[in-house]
Amino acid sequence: MPHQTDMPDGSQTNGQRLKRLRMRRRWDQRKLAEASGYSLSAVRKFEQGHRSLDRADVILAFSKALDCHPTEITGQPYTPPDSDRDGQAALASVGAVRRALLRHGRPARPTGQEAAGVDLNTLRERVAAANGHRQGASLTKLGDLLPALLRDLQVSVDVYAGDRRREAYDLLASGYECAMQYLYKLGRSSDATLATERVLWSAEQTEDPLRVLSARWYDAGEFLSIGEHDEAGAIIDGALSTLGAMRADSPEKVSLTGAFHLKASLNHARATDSEAAERHLKKAQKQAELLGHDRNDYELQFGPTNCAIWSVSLPVEMGRGREAVRRAELVTRALPDQYAPERRSHHYIDVGRAYYYNGQHDEAFEAFVKAERLAPQATRMHAGVRETTHTMLHATRRTTLFEFGMRLGVV
């Protein structure tokens, strides 16, 4: 059997990577336990693969103790196995999308043909198609569209002026959001962060206060993902204050307010403040009741369905398996079939993790397979799915679970 350090990084557990990072600092397990706040027994179980190291708050605690980025523990980005042709195809456009992001803010210097071909109606249709692939979890198709689309959007903001230029910036911000989600789902976190910065800048050029706030929703997520809860909270609180000061309760305002309360609930859940997390969830649910239906303002889905999905995510984030399973069984039955595959797949990932925390490994595996059917590449690239599957494989070599692990590239 190959030595741990000779194994492909994607086939290692988070615990094995944690051990490697600990040894790099010349720490023993006791020192890591003291620095992270976890027990020596817990550190040993994580490193040996007896306990799944998949919860964000735990990973963040170790990354802060070791002064490393969380992805150094999760191993992202992953490279799909050669057998996963769809996964390989999804990655094919990463380099071209990255180049388009790097060109942001530079003079587009369009050719005469490019300048003459700019048409906002056509661009609007192309952005809508990209968002359709994004919500449909079609990462390969999204990646195929993005490089040329981003180039044409960058040309459009150079060509137009006045209101039409502001509209072009709105479309550009949406294009960058698609790029951000494409890169994030493929585990390219640093490139996704770059895309988020482009979203913010472009949204500000629209001079639409709600459009700017919708971009800050993603900005808060960037800080949340690295455990900077105070910074994420400051962005969220600022947005909620701005929204609260607006007089008219338009559907867009209500929807954004609810979305920020959901983001606040996640921020508090990862900061292990369960009371604040539930408080913000209830506030989001009140906004959803005001709307009465699901909306997709600025491509931020919000409404009763989204609140129901997040009600499962929060106890999962806090490792409360029993509560998460209880909520999941109610939510899953009511989940509309027409709801975006991307969101439904993430729900089933949360359901799988909930079952795992509750000791129901067969049910966890079945939920992961449902998520994979809806969003193959995003599910196989999901850090929590990979780590939990690794840990379940440590306990059993069931054929179907082993085959799933092979599709993930963890065995």
Automatic annotation (TrEMBL):
Q: Which Pfam families match?
A: HTH_31 (PF13560)
Stored PROSITE patterns: HTH_CROC1, TPR
Q: Where is the HTH cro/C1-type domain?
A: 18-73
Which UniProt keywords are given for this protein, alphabetically ordered?
A: TPR repeat
GO MF term set: DNA binding
Gene3D superfamilies of this UniProt entry? Answer: lambda repressor-like DNA-binding domains, Tetratricopeptide repeat domain
The regions listed as transmembrane in this protein's record are none
InterPro entries linked = Cro/C1-type_HTH, Lambda_DNA-bd_dom_sf, TPR-like_helical_dom_sf, TPR_rpt
Provide the residue intervals of the TPR repeats: 345-378
State the name under which the record lists this protein: Transcriptional regulator
Give the species.
Answer: Streptomyces antioxidans
